[in-house]
Amino acid sequence: MSPPYGVWAHICGTDLVRDEPGSSTSWKITCGFPPGVSYMLENRAITKRVLPELFERENIKPIDAYPAQLLENPGGPVAPAD
Questions:
Q1: Among 5, 3, 1, residue whose Cα is nearest residue 78
Q2: CA distance 23 to 76
Q3: Is 42 in a helix, a strand, or coil?
Q4: What pTM does this model have?
Q5: Whose CA, among 29, 42, 70, 79, lies 20 to 30 Å from 35?
C-alpha cells in the first residue's frame, strides 16, 4: 500500500462501528486536528498538578508544544505544485 504523494496520516481518528451481522466497519475518519485533543491536553495538565511525582518517576515526556506543532502545518500534507 502506498499513500498519495508518499505521505502517511500521522494523526487520524477513526470511529469503528459494528453492524447488525457483527462486522466492523469504519464509520468516520478524521485526519488533521483531532477533535478530542483538547481533552488530552487538559487531562495531562490536571494530572501533572495532582500527581507531579508520577511524571518525575516515570519520565513522562511533555506534550506542551503539541498545539504549536499542529499550528506549524495546519492543513497537513498537500499535493506538490505542478
A1: 5
A2: 31
A3: helix
A4: 0.49
A5: 79
